[in-house]
């Protein structure tokens, strides 16, 4: 057998998908096909208030299913909020779940599915070194994910993310068995999404696309065996296709979706961009901006964003975008052509910056300013004295930093944070 030093194989996994206006009305039929009869809808109070969860529950009930609703998901879930949700779900027998909402609701549904199907505690399954990193012992129950943000891509990824309150750190569970059984993506559900959530969750999509597109190429990693091959395998020709298409959709629709929320064409393109970016990063991986975003969100003090529940939090999409201009300035030398191409896809009608290295950072800063993202770390409550803590938190995300296209040490991260206090 030929001996290879570098990886020659990449993998691509996905979730069956139903996409389009009105798709959610068919959910009863879809759950029936998956063999679920008693299903729990998992959602947060804001989505319940918007009537979206009830609409999904009604569609399932009309198809003859028995439906319960848990509407107390915590926005940006925590170990405590997961425990409450699992406790509620454990009081009845369910043979399927529907996660209706943004990443917070879909991730909570994933955790409920795992922790009510098999014995064991959250800690057993959390990624190492924070948890034991155990694999789910067997297949999970059917889970249909219905995203209402465009968005995290949680409907197609094998991960769920949570905030460990005691440790002030975000971590998650990642295993292919966590992938939903079906994603039902209906752009009509996003017409009432507040502009601030449209902006933040759209920046999450953008970072997914950009980070997976600029990730270390799969064939620059050492050769794996089938057993050791990781879920995030680095950029590869198939993930690249999804990322490029997601970026050109964002280039056409993002500002319109934020500024004129009821524009169905823009909402549809944003939903498609989120789905496509999910199909890309869910395999290739994300790197520096996401690694930095975790401590930015986890160490929050008193920043309360508008458009979100009235509590201190840095929404995921804001937290990952704040260091993106600086991070892509840092990764530029690894593949200048790719960074320049990304800038053109995102801003096809803009005259490129004279300095090639500044093209992508300047496109990002202009977009973030136009859609109302905070200008940098200062605006979300951090000072220069927080840099050491932020660096420590980002250094814990080695699973993500391993996918960066060049080695990233603590000094590099400190420079990136320092460069991110004011992006314009
Ligand atoms: N599993 C993954 O692959 C993955 C990837 C990235 C992020 N995440 C996680 O996802 C979470 C963030 O998810 P998100 O950005 O999708 O937002 P979210 O689920 O936190 O929701 C944000 C806010 O928007 C409201 N909202 C959502 N949809 C609405 C609608 N259609 N109409 C009116 N209001 C609506 C919600 O009520 C909530 O107040 C974070 O916890 C993040 O860590 C998970
Ligand atoms: Fe994300």
UniProtKB/TrEMBL annotation:
It catalyses: (S)-3-hydroxybutanoate + 2-oxoglutarate = (R)-2-hydroxyglutarate + acetoacetate; 4-hydroxybutanoate + 2-oxoglutarate = (R)-2-hydroxyglutarate + succinate semialdehyde. It holds the Pfam family Fe-ADH. GO terms for molecular function: alcohol dehydrogenase (NAD+) activity; hydroxyacid-oxoacid transhydrogenase activity; metal ion binding. CDD domains: HOT (cd08190). Residues 18-187 form the Alcohol dehydrogenase iron-type/glycerol dehydrogenase GldA domain. Keywords: Oxidoreductase, Transit peptide. Its EC number is 1.1.99.24. It comes from the Bacteria. Residues 198-419 form the Fe-containing alcohol dehydrogenase-like C-terminal domain. InterPro entries: ADH_Fe/GldA, ADH_Fe_C, ADH_Fe_CS, Alcohol_dehydrogenase_Fe, HOT. The keyword Transit peptide applies. Belongs to the iron-containing alcohol dehydrogenase family. Hydroxyacid-oxoacid transhydrogenase subfamily. This is hydroxyacid-oxoacid transhydrogenase. It comes from Amycolatopsis suaedae.
